[in-house]
Amino acid sequence: MYNTFGVKANSLYFEDADTLSELINILKNPLYQNVDKFILGGGSNVLFTQDFNGLVIKISLKGINVEKEDENNVYVKAYAGEIWDDLVSYSVEKGYGGFENLSGIPGLVGATPIQNIGAYGSEIKSSFESLEAININTGETRFFNLDECKFGYRDSVFKNELKNQYVVVSVLYKLSKKPIINLSYKALKDYFDLIKNNNPTILDVRNAVIKIRSEKLPDTIKFGTAGSFFKNAIISKDKFEILQKNYPDVPFFLEENEKYKIPTGWLIEKAGFKGQRYGNCGVYEKQALVLINFGGATGLEVFEFSKLIQDKVKSIFDIDIEREVVVI
Ligand SMILES: Cc1cc2nc3c(=O)[nH]c(=O)nc-3n(C[C@H](O)[C@H](O)[C@H](O)COP(=O)(O)OP(=O)(O)OC[C@H]3O[C@@H](n4cnc5c(N)ncnc54)[C@H](O)[C@@H]3O)c2cc1C
Questions:
Q1: What is the span of the domain harbouring residue 320?
Q2: How many CA atoms lie within 13 A of 47 on its CB side?
Q3: How far is CA 276 from CA 108, 216, 307, in A?
Q4: Does the C-beta of 83 come closer than 6 Å to ligand 1?
């Protein structure tokens, strides 16, 4: 099973690309010319609700190397099939700052710019320099810089106008030789306050993030999950004022352009779903943003449950919550 939700699904064709030339040969293969294609990394952000009637290409290209460096920065290139957290571990060991808050996120390097992964007050776009990708239809190589990726909250050009058009082959990240510790995320700051460490290193931050994550997230050996199933809700000022009037305890973060970010986990909890079971799936008891497969759930079952949650949240709060997970 190539997905962390642990749901069963088959594809018509399956290929594993270990090298760039293998990937190009797969894309050129006449058998696959008029066939739908899905690029798979670690399968930690997908939900298969049905069999895929096309070609799944698993990306396994490996390699990490320093491309260039100057007094302040080091530019590390990693191939798409590298395990993301191995790259974080490598960088922290070398003393390069930028990735430490993103420790412990499952999945592979190639998906990091697709999703603009984020956690604990950091997003990949802050350490992103450029990426190399192959056009799925033409086989041509194209480089994308920061602006061209159009990063947003768990979003990029690859989920919008260039959806299903490029395979990310490698990513070039810009890391700092003089790391600046980012404790903007409250849980992280509280952690270091509690242990009275007011001068943490990037290794301390990595270890703290891994510890906090292990307490908040389900054990992926026991349960199927894709982490946060929904994105946090971004709402207008008008809508926020109504919400706050009805629920004075609503947590929020002020965003750009007078928008408000509302933790969707809070909305789901208020709607009564936290810890609730629906057939073989449910909402994780410690974090309502996380849906889990207790064993034997189908992708469709999880999807239907997620629809139920969306409808109830909409009917109570008049807020549309969007899935973060890619649904097939
Ligand atoms: C327990 C758990 C905790 C998590 N915590 C976080 C978190 O804190 N923050 C966060 O941001 N995410 C989190 N996630 C979600 C997930 O780990 C990330 O989104 C991750 O980047 C997905 O990587 P992947 O390789 O598994 O991608 P996949 O799930 O395989 O694919 C995700 C999407 O990216 C596309 N894709 C993958 N590789 C490529 C490529 N090389 N080229 C083109 N397209 C590609 C796929 O087609 C798909 O659309 C969590 C998931 C789990 C299971």
A1: 224-327
A2: 27
A3: 31, 17, 14
A4: no
Domain stop point among 176, 208, 240: 176
Q: What is the pLDDT of residue 1?
A: 78
Taking only the tens place, the pLDDT of each residue in 203-262 is 999 999 999 999 989 988 899 999 999 999 999 999 999 999 999 999 999 988 889 999
Q: Do residue 34 and residue 88 come from a single domain?
A: no
Task: Tell me if 43 CB under 6 Å of ligand 1.
Answer: yes
Ligand 1 neighbourhood includes 167 CB (under 6 angstroms): yes
45, 92: one domain: no
Give me the pLDDT at residue 257, please: 84
List all residues 6 or more positions away from 143 whose beta carbon is below 8 Å from its beta carbon.
130, 131, 132, 133
pTM of the model: 0.94
User: Band of the pLDDT at 26, cuts 50, 70, 90?
Assistant: very high
My answer on whether 108 and 36 are in the same domain is no
Q: Is the CB of 212 under 6 A from ligand 1?
A: no
Atom of ligand 1 nearest to the CA of 114: 34
Report CA(44)–ligand 1 centroid distance (Å): 5
Question: Does the annotation mark 285 as catalytic?
Answer: no
pLDDT in tens, 158-212: 999 999 999 999 999 999 999 999 999 999 999 999 999 999 999 999 999 999 9
Catalytic member of 82, 100, 123, 324: 324
Alpha-carbon torsion (309, 312, 317, 322), positive or negative: positive
